[in-house]
């Protein structure tokens, strides 16, 4: 199954006999909370999910957005109407990072039919509603492990034995600037692969063949395994999604740079080269 869905496909399926559960995950790093925008207008039937509170655990030594407790995540999904056998479509304001985080968590915990709305809400041409839905309780029970997950040691090893992609902006990879974390730079051996280069100007993904060419140019076709990290495991999920569109499986280092750089014992590389 394709991991993304177009707005026209989503409209058609929503009007069909087996409509998907719609999740609205509007979120901005350091920006205003997405709930007011959701309440002002959302795709009919969509349920709001809070990335910081419901798609992540409390920040700490595991990073800014550590994985949530699986049982708590499952309860959130059930309240949103998610069942084991119901399709799910996730969208955000258009950047795609938050939607990809929800997609990754659902896939990692065993849901097999999850797609991200390509281009997010900005791509939707249908009506919006302000009514807050109250869906019937779903039956989804998370079983973590369906997608590969890296810890810090695993990411360090993969940077040497395979291909570890850094999804952050290139200037953060190089260590020129670091607006959020303790120190700038990258995991030694990681290759710069900004998430912004996976999409066109309106936030929709490049065609699958273009994404495949991009990742092959970075070494994905020669690596025994591919992994991704970012700042805190959000934009990294978007890169894992882009790799999935290209047909390339990849592991996510969920703790990412916020966890790695928070541990002063871990090495930091700077500059444009993996090192």
Structure description:
The protein is of the alpha/beta class and about 280 residues long. The chain has ten helices and ten strands. Strands 1-5-4-2-3 form a five-stranded parallel beta sheet. Strands 6-10-9-7-8 form a five-stranded parallel beta sheet, with helices on both faces. It is globular and about 55 Å long. About 45% of the residues are buried. The model has no long low-confidence stretch (mean pLDDT about 95).
Q: Which keywords apply here?
A:
alpha/beta, 5-stranded parallel sheet, 275 residues
Structural class: alpha/beta
Q: Proportion of β residues?
A: 5-15%
Largest sheet: 5 strands, parallel
The outline comes out as globular
Rg value: 18 Å
Helix content: 25-40%
Distance linking N and C termini: 37 Å
List unreliable stretches of 5+ residues.
none
Regarding quaternary structure, what we see is: single chain
Mean of residue pLDDT values = 97
What is the total tally of β strands? 10
**Helix/strand order:** EHEHEHHEHEEHEHEHEHEH
In order across it, which strands form the biggest sheet? 1-5-4-2-3
Discrete helix count: 10
Give the topology, please:
Blueprint: E1 4-5, H1 7-14, E2 21-24, H2 35-40, E3 47-48, H3 51-54, H4 70-79, E4 88-91, H5 97-108, E5 114-117, E6 149-150, H6 152-161, E7 163-166, H7 170-174, E8 191-192, H8 208-217, E9 226-229, H9 235-245, E10 251-253, H10 256-260
Parallel strand pairs: 1-5, 2-3, 2-4, 4-5, 6-10, 7-8, 7-9, 9-10
């Amino acid at each position: 199954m394709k991991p993304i869905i177009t707005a026209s496909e989503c409209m058609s399926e929503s009007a069909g006999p087996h409509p998907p559960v719609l999740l609205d995950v509007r979120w901005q790093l350091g920006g205003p909370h997405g709930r007011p925008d959701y309440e002002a207008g959302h795709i009919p039937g969509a349920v709001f999910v809070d990335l910081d509170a419901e798609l992540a655990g409390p920040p700490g030594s595991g990073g800014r957005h550590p994985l949530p407790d699986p049982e708590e995540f499952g309860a959130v999904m059930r309240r949103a109407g998610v069942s084991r056998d119901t399709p799910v479509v996730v969208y955000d304001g258009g950047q795609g990072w938050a939607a990809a985080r929800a997609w990754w968590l659902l896939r990692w915990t065993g849901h097999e039919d999850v797609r991200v709305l390509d281009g997010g809400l900005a791509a939707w041409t249908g009506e919006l509603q302000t009514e807050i839905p109250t869906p019937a309780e779903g039956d989804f029970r998370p079983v973590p492990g369906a997608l590969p997950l890296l810890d810090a040691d695993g990411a360090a090893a993969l940077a040497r034995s395979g291909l570890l992609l850094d999804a952050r902006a290139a200037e953060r990879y190089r260590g020129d600037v670091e607006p959020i974390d303790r120190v700038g730079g990258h995991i030694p051996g990681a290759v710069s692969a900004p998430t912004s280069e996976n999409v066109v100007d309106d936030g929709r993904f490049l065609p699958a063949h273009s994404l495949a060419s991009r990742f092959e140019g970075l070494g994905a076709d020669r690596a025994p395994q591919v992994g991704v990290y970012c700042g805190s495991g959000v934009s990294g999920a978007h890169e894992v999604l882009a790799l999935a569109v290209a047909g390339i499986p990849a592991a996510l280092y969920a703790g990412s740079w916020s966890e790695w750089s928070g541990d002063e014992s871990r090495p930091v590389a700077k500059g444009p080269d993996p090192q």
